[in-house]
């Protein structure tokens, strides 16, 4: 902890030096209404408490300055903040046009204010139309924007406004993991996103301990007890004003029938708000003995009221967000908060079209106590946000960069593409054979060529070129359009550059070899190169059991042991192209020596070479052959003989296979505990002999949370060639793989 604190201080010091030693970050906080101030106030207090780092300018606009909504700018003054500018931006009206005109009025007035203040960064909250005007003005005037609560989902025009502000903002503070993922999906730069939690939770989580009875009595009367009253807060839905007003009418009727003391807050400034106030007055709510109708309650007091209420009802985001911190029952009406993450305290009445339905919800929820929910924060948002602000480097380019996912270019629809089969040339460099194949988009091997793999680099490269030229010529005859060349080879491969960095001992003179350049120059085709284990995983992803699976691992069991890892649909290469060297997972500290120079690797137990070694030992001791087996004098002992002996009842051969299967199983358990894939695919000639042993080890040794993993044997006849082809077929239109 001390290390990370010192690291953070060092980073802040470096940023201060970059920004100029004496330069304080000038932060403009613009607040539009009572709701956003409750989220911004904790940040403002934090900024004010560190004058050595920050200068704070406060701009107040929107409903803060309207008497009908309680002149809530006064609570900002009561909190001892100097208000630099007051902007009257609300155009009175009862329809959607009034909101548009209010945005226009704010856009007219804001440039002069921002020109005078010249802030380094503007903090904007949420999804109100006033906030959209703020973000638009700041973006067009080249002022950096920090957006609070982006990435969330709800059910009204607020969604569109929130996401529009996200695209204008340079930095993002989000409250939940889902919101963070939404921002990333919207192509925002992950380095500029802070998962901090909701700033209001910094107050909420300590609020319940304070004195509350005097507050309850002040707003609801002396005779009211805790958990025996209701807080109602409902706003118009601007995309369906008539329905939301009808729903408000039904809510008030249900509350009158329920006959409990109720605090009703006036709605937000939105199209339809005046009509909702008229509905309240028409029903006599302001004079009803069970009701208290108020324009505004200070946030500190509002916290206490909802924390000790028997229920909250309406469609305010406060109900699904902040109230969860206290476990107070909530009835969420209509679609205004559709998509919000909620705790178990929230009962949704999506189609609140009858009084009885709302009344029934009140009967179900009133007086219950639910577990407290911390979905939206842990009480430490403000320190995280201040640290984030201090890390902003003002010398970085102002222009936003979006992190778009790779997009394939369109293939021209000429007659050749329609008539020909799009295909790849696949090359497999094995320890013994060199193979080249024409592979179609569907994974069909149209034509295959096989030659012995030469021992020298020059002969090998010459043969690859010769076989590829021959296959490319034949492709014309079989009506295949070759899109590129994919090469699968043993060893460590820099797949970005197409270079074999280090080879296995099975392929000689095959280190620091540039395969891409000579083959691409000779064939005038793009060339991709990767490790054979990675290619096997790609083959499974495109053509085999891994198709459509997000996270899986492929293990090749052949002469050696290799593999590939697919995580979130992408192949993992690692920082030095050494990922998925699964054969060299150590399962024993004093096991047999491996070809890599280490001891106790999976490959030293379970590879074809390892089985051949053990078979030779048994044969030398005359313990291999059993009844039903025979060998010619010149015949070389192989792993196949060991497997045959085990099948015919040779207990020593069977013991060797069980040890090999156990070693492989332990390696798989380590993979499960590290990567947590949903599928393990065993590939290669030995896969069927090991699958049951691997499953047994998983059942005995793995954590219970990963035991449900599927372990299957590959159904692909030629994963190396298919994987090499998939390099081409999946990535032909990308410049970099």
TrEMBL record:
For binding an N-acyl-D-mannosamine, which residues are annotated in this chain's numbering?
Answer: 492, 504, 532, 581, 584, 603
Q: State any GO CC term.
A: cytosol
- InterPro entries per the record? ATPase_NBD (IPR043129), ROK (IPR000600), UDP-GlcNAc_Epase (IPR020004), UDP_GlcNAc_Epimerase_2_dom (IPR003331)
This enzyme catalyses: an N-acyl-D-mannosamine + ATP = an N-acyl-D-mannosamine 6-phosphate + ADP + H(+); UDP-N-acetyl-alpha-D-glucosamine + H2O = aldehydo-N-acetyl-D-mannosamine + UDP + H(+)
The biological processes this protein is annotated with in GO are: UDP-N-acetylglucosamine metabolic process
Q: Which interval of the chain is the signal sequence?
A: none
The UniProt keyword set, sorted, is:
Allosteric enzyme, ATP-binding, Cytoplasm, Hydrolase, Kinase, Metal-binding, Multifunctional enzyme, Nucleotide-binding, Phosphoprotein, Transferase, Zinc
Q: Where does Zn(2+) bind?
A: 584, 594, 596, 601
Q: In which pathway does it act?
A: Amino-sugar metabolism; N-acetylneuraminate biosynthesis
- Reported EC number(s) for this entry are 2.7.1.60, 3.2.1.183
Its localization reads: Cytoplasm, Cytosol
As one GO molecular function, the record gives: UDP-N-acetylglucosamine 2-epimerase activity
Domain of life, per UniProt, equals Eukaryota
The entry's active site is: 532
Subunit info? Homodimer. Homotetramer. Homohexamer. The hexameric form exhibits both enzyme activities, whereas the dimeric form only catalyzes the phosphorylation of N-acyl-D-mannosamine.
* Family listed: In the N-terminal section; belongs to the UDP-N-acetylglucosamine 2-epimerase family.
Q: Which PANTHER family match?
A: BIFUNCTIONAL UDP-N-ACETYLGLUCOSAMINE 2-EPIMERASE_N-ACETYLMANNOSAMINE KINASE, ROK (REPRESSOR, ORF, KINASE) FAMILY
Q: Which NCBIfam families match?
A: NeuC_NnaA
Q: What is this protein called?
A: Bifunctional UDP-N-acetylglucosamine 2-epimerase/N-acetylmannosamine kinase
Annotated gene = Gne
């Amino acid at each position: 902890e001390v290390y990370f604190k010192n690291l953070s201080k060092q980073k802040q010091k470096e940023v201060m030096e970059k920004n100029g030693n004496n330069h304080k970050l000038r932060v403009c906080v613009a607040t539009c209404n009572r709701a956003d101030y409750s989220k911004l106030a904790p940040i403002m207090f934090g900024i004010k408490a560190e004058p050595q780092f920050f200068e704070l300018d406060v701009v107040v606009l929107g409903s803060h300055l309207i008497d009908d909504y309680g002149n809530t700018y006064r609570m900002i003054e009561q909190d001892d903040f100097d208000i630099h500018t007051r902007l009257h931006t609300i155009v009175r009206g009862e329809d959607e046009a009034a909101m548009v005109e209010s945005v226009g009025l704010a856009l007219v007035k804001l440039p002069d204010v921002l020109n005078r203040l010249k802030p380094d960064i503007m903090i904007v909250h949420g999804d109100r139309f006033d906030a959209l005007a703020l973000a638009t003005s700041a973006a067009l005037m080249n002022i950096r924007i920090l957006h609070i609560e982006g990435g969330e989902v709800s059910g009204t025009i607020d969604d569109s406004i929130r996401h529009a502000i996200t695209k204008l903002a340079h930095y993002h503070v989000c409250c939940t993991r889902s919101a963070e993922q939404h921002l990333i999906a919207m192509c925002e730069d992950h380095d500029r996103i802070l998962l901090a939690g909701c700033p209001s939770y910094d107050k909420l989580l300590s609020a319940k301990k304070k004195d509350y009875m005097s507050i309850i009595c002040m707003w609801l009367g002396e005779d009211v007890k805790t958990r025996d009253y209701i807080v109602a807060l409902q706003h118009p839905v601007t995309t369906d004003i008539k329905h939301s007003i009808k729903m408000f009418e039904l809510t008030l009727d249900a509350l009158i029938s329920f006959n409990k003391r109720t605090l009703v807050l006036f709605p937000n400034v939105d199209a339809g708000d005046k009509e909702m106030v008229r509905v309240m007055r028409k029903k006599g709510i302001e004079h009803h003995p069970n009701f208290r109708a108020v324009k505004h309650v200070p946030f500190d007091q509002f916290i206490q009221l909802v924390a000790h209420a028997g229920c909250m009802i309406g469609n305010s985001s406060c109900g699904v967000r902040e109230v969860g911190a206290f476990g107070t029952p909530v009835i969420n009406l209509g679609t205004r908060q559709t998509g919000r993450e909620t705790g178990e305290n929230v009962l949704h009445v999506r189609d609140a079209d009858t009084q009885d339905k709302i009344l029934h919800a009140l009967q179900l929820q009133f007086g219950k106590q639910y577990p407290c929910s911390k979905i939206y924060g842990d009480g430490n948002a403000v320190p995280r946000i201040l640290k984030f602000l201090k890390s902003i480097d003002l010398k970085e380019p102002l222009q936003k960069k979006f992190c778009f996912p790779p997009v394939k270019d369109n293939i021209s629809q000429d007659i050749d593409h329609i008539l020909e089969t799009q295909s790849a040339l696949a090359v497999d460099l094995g320890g013994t054979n060199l193979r080249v194949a024409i592979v179609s988009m569907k994974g069909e091997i149209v034509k295959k060529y096989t030659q012995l793999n030469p021992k020298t680099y020059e002969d090998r490269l010459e043969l690859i070129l010769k076989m590829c030229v021959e296959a490319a010529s034949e492709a014309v005859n079989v009506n295949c359009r070759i899109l590129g060349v994919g090469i699968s080879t043993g060893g460590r491969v820099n797949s970005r550059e197409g270079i074999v960095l280090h080879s296995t001992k099975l392929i000689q003179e095959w280190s620091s070899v540039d395969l891409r350049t000579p083959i691409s120059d000779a064939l005038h085709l793009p060339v991709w190169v990767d490790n054979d284990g990675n290619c096997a995983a790609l083959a499974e992803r495109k053509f085999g059991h891994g198709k459509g699976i997000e996270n899986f691992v492929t293990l090749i069991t052949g002469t050696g042991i290799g593999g590939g890892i697919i995580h979130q649909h992408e192949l993992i290469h690692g920082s030095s192209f050494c990922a998925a060297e699964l054969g060299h997972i150590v399962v024993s500290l004093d096991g047999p020596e491996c070809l890599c120079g280490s001891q106790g690797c999976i490959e030293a137990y379970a590879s074809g070479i390892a089985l051949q070694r053990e078979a030779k030992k048994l044969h030398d001791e005359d313990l291999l052959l059993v009844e039903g087996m025979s060998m010619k004098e010149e015949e070389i002992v192989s792993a196949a003989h060991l497997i045959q002996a085990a099948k015919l009842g040779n207990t020593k051969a069977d013991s060797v296979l069980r040890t090999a299967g156990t070693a492989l199983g332990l390696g798989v358990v380590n993979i499960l505990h590290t990567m947590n894939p949903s599928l393990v695919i065993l590939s290669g000639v030995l896969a069927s002999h090991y699958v049951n042993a691997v499953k047994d080890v998983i059942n005995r040794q793995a954590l219970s949370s990963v035991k449900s993993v599927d372990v299957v044997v590959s159904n692909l006849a030629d994963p190396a060639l298919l994987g090499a082809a998939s390099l081409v077929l999946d990535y032909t239109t990308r410049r970099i793989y």
